[in-house]
Amino acid sequence: MVLGFFKHVYRYFVPRVQDKDEVEISRDGGALLSDSFIAGAVPMYDTTGRIIGYVQTNHPFQNLGSPKIYRLQIYSPQRPVLLLVGPTRIENASKFVIGSTNEIIYTRTPEGHFIPIQNPEEKQGHAQHKPLDTKVKEDFPGAEVHWDGWPDGKFEQDFTLDEVNETNDLAIHWAHTVGGGDRKGQRFAEEWMNGKRATRTCLGILQCDNQDCEITIRPHTKPQSLRTQLLKPCSCGAMLYHLKCDVKSILWTWSKGIHYQNSGYHVHRRPPRKLHLLPQEKRRFEAMVNAHPQVGPLQLIVGVPGIDGPGESVADISDVLLNADRVTKERQKLKRPADTGGDHFIRAFAKFEQERPGFIILSTIGKVTVISVQTPFMQSQMVKDEVLDGPVNGMVSDAAHGWWKERTSLLMVSSTYCPDLFCWVPGVLSFTNGASGEHFMYHFLAVFQAIAHEAEKRHLEVEDRLFAGVMDFSQAERLGFITAFVEFWYRRPDSNRSREELQDAAEKLLRGCAEHFRAGVTRVSRITGAVSPEKAEDFVKRAMSLLHAADTDEFCSRLALLARDFPKLIDWFNWWSRPSHAMMLFGSERKMDADLWDAIPATTNAEEAMHWKLYRACGRDHAFLEGLASLYQIAIYYERQYSSVKKGVPVRYGEAERWKRIAITYGCTKPGRAENSQDKKRKRNDGRPPDTAKEILGSKTAKKPRKSGLSPTLDTSILGPQSYPWNSNSCWLDTSLQLLYMTCY
DNA sequence: TCGCCGTTTCGCCGCTTCTG
DNA sequence: CAGAAGCGGCGAAACGGCGA
Questions:
Q1: Which portions of the sequence form the region Disordered (predicted)?
Q2: Residue A621 CB: number of other CB atoms within 10 A?
Q3: Calpha distance A322→A330 (Å, rounded)
Q4: CB of A193 under 7 A from strand B?
Q5: Are A696 and A739 in contact (CB under 8 A)?
């Protein structure tokens, strides 16, 4: 404040040295004033503590009130040096530069003595920012490069090519113009003095003449743009002026790097707005984004969420990253190149494959794009030497819709049971850009080839039953399976079956998911227009009994009776009883061998659980390459689990597959869903008194079957029509009155 | 007047910022 | 978040001062 006040008074009483918009400062730190003026002047400081001008001692402003008037005296007998003495904020202005080229800096001791600072180059008078530690390289061999982007003071330094790269070509934060034009020098000269010369001239800063305003503006580099800047007022309303600075850096680019020479001190504040991130700052930012890929720009700035609340913030790295838009862009630059089209993608994809050799087992690129991946461990799990006990043989296939960011892309997964891990493990994982039969065909082709490779490796015969599995009733998936099966065998030299025979054989290897059927039954049982509420329970029981019909006759008669009793569901019955669906689902209609039928699971629940596990492990909505990399890590996870178990290291506490025991006890794997679940009976404590009809009148009243077509409100036959007019937004009152009526009568 | 050398200006490219 | 607009940085040509 004090400094600002003096500056303002000075600007008021003393005519500007330059034109009305400019204050020119010499490159050595002093204002361009005559010696005679200096000899009788009080130095004026900017907020960094450096002199920006002088006030003559006999000026009327001396006699103003507080702060007390400064007195000047000559301190050095050799050179006329001005010192500031008297009561002042010495902690801020205790070090300062006087004069032009032969500058001396003094500091004041607590006792009040003034002591010259011996090395002005190293101890500069900036109060607000720490200048670059500028040393001539030859004097400090082996010194580590330190480049903060704010070169200041007089110095020369050599930078090696590595150091130049490391500092982004010695990028600086000062607003500056650049100049080249040296036609003599050679970029690859053997001596730095013969190198290509370029210059950087500081543009100073823009500030306004309001003493209370602390805004500093970065000047534009184009003259026209700078003029436009100066025409506009400061955001405080005051007039802007250009505080020029002529500090120049000269860079000689030669064969071994850059020889850097800085000509003097910046006598103005640093422009608060920085433009560049230095490479080390970029690396820190990159590390944070890599560590928290799902964290958005705003969270990165506020602090990435941690256990104890927001943690490290990118704003700690550089002020540049306080700008949310800039953070967005920098983040995009990191995230996008790998996943956007063009050369970037090809390069990234090639790198991905190079780093994980053999992981991609089949890739089809084009309108139908399918990329299948598998590790050797996954392949080894696809064939079992013997049939396992229980319905855990064969493979389970399904598509996950949430894995990829692109909504039309799917992750197809075929899993097999691993008896060592007591869980299903992925066998083949495929990226597909759609869900057509052709997409599924390529996926299953990869699956069959993998199975065949593994069987041949173990000297087992490649036979149809190795490919048996369960899937849902997607027409495309079924078609894809059959086509792939036909293609696979047709390409093999040892196959002598016709396409029709192969198609027939493929149909015998498919089992449909009974869970999908059960879910369908439950869904239609709730369509009261087709199944009246009182018959819903009966309908579910009879429909499910179709699964266990002893033979085709019994199946047909049960179906006919169902169709008679629920005529609106004829289409639904027809769909399920189509031969292609019925053979996959109903025991009496199956074409599959009975042994195989019992050996493979009845549902794709294992696969649904696998999807859940994948999402929990790596999240959803992955970009292409990042998603593939995640799949690789998941494959590695299973492999590690397997090798741990083989060595006797426990990979879980307690019992494996606890859900099996729970299923026996409760009839289903989630105790809460059991018929007589205590959980269902228990009232959730919502902290409110019992105020619902169900709680007040008992569940029977609340559960009265609704008449078809009525809205789910209270039965009007009990209450009768309301005897008061409905007013706008009076629902709260209406409800209360209804409740009162019900509880009192 | 010419040539040398430093400074200024201009155009392009790519990065940064703004806008919807 | 994407695309547009603005801006900075670089390289090179043009310009200008100065001495021979």
A1: 670-714
A2: 14
A3: 12
A4: no
A5: yes
Nucleotide lying nearest to A203, CA to C1' measure: C8
Mean pLDDT by 10 residues, chain A (745 residues): 39 38 39 35 44 39 28 28 28 30 36 38 33 37 59 80 75 76 65 76 81 80 73 78 78 79 79 75 78 75 72 78 75 60 64 87 86 92 83 84 80 88 88 88 93 91 88 85 91 85 88 84 86 86 87 88 87 85 85 83 79 80 80 87 78 62 57 50 57 58 39 42 48 58 54
Distance CA A176, CA A218 (A): 10
Identify the helix (H) or strand (E) that includes residue A537: helix A533-545
Distance A252 CA to C12 C1' (A): 17
Q: How far is CA A65 from CA A60, A71, A568, in A?
A: 11, 14, 100
Cα A397 to its chain centre, rounded Å, is: 30
Which bases of chain C are contacted by protein, using any atom under 7 A from a CB? 1-2, 7-14
Helix, strand, or coil here: A207?
Answer: strand
Evaluate whether A706 touches A712 at the Cβ level (below 8 Å).
yes
Predicted structure pTM score: 0.54
A323 touches strand C (CB under 7 A): no
Around Cβ A27, how many Cβ atoms within 10 Å? 19
Residue nearest C12, CA–C1′ metric: A181
Task: Confirm whether any atom of chain C, the nucleic acid strand, is less than 7 Å from CB of A198.
Answer: yes
Indicate yes or no: strand C within 7 A of the C-beta of A221: yes
Q: What is the Cα–Cα distance from A317 to A561, expressed in whole angstroms?
A: 74
Tokens of A454: 């593994």
Task: Determine the Cα angle at A301 with ends A296 and A307, to 5°.
Answer: 75
- Which tokens hold the place of A704? 């009265």
Q: What's CA A186's distance to the chain center, in Å? A: 46
**DSSP 3-state assignment of A422?**
coil
- Strand nucleotide closest to residue A183 (CA to C1'): B5
What's the Å distance between residue A229 CA and nucleotide C10 C1'? 24
Taking the CA of residue A319 and the C1' sugar atom of nucleotide B19, their distance in angstroms comes to 23
User: Which two three-digit tokens encode residue A493?
Assistant: 């030299």
What torsion do the CA atoms of A542, A544, A550, A556 make, to the nearest 10 degrees?
60
CA quadruple A232, A234, A236, A241: dihedral sign: negative
Residue A686, φ and ψ in degrees, nearest 5: -105, 10
**A438, amino acid identity:** E
Residue A646 carries which DSSP code? H
Q: What angle do CA A390, A396, A402 make, to 5 degrees?
A: 140
| DSSP tag of A567 | G
- Give the pLDDT score at A192: 77
**Can you read off the two tokens belonging to residue A448?**
């069959």
The answer to whether the beta carbons of residues A445 and A380 sit under 8 Å apart is no
Place of tokens 């990226």: A431
Distance in angstroms, CA of A201 to C1' of C11?
17
Give counts: helices (H), strands (E), chain A: 27, 24
Phi, psi (rounded to 5 degrees) for A156: -135, 145
Segments in A578-677 forming alpha helices (H): 579-585, 594-599, 605-618, 624-647, 658-666
CA distances from A606 to A345, A513, A601 (A): 34, 11, 9
Q: Is A41 helix (H, G, I), strand (E, B) or coil?
A: strand
- Residue A584 tokens read as 């996959």
Kindly report the backbone phi and psi dihedral angles of residue A47, in degrees, each rounded to the nearest multiple of 5, phi listed first. -70, -10
For every residue of A263-299, DSSP letters joined together read: EE---SPPPS------HHHHHHHHHHHHH-TT--HHH
E strands, A644-737, in order: none
Pairing of strands A423-432, A240-243: unpaired
Q: What confidence score (pLDDT) does residue A744 get?
A: 52
For position A265, what pLDDT does the model report? 79
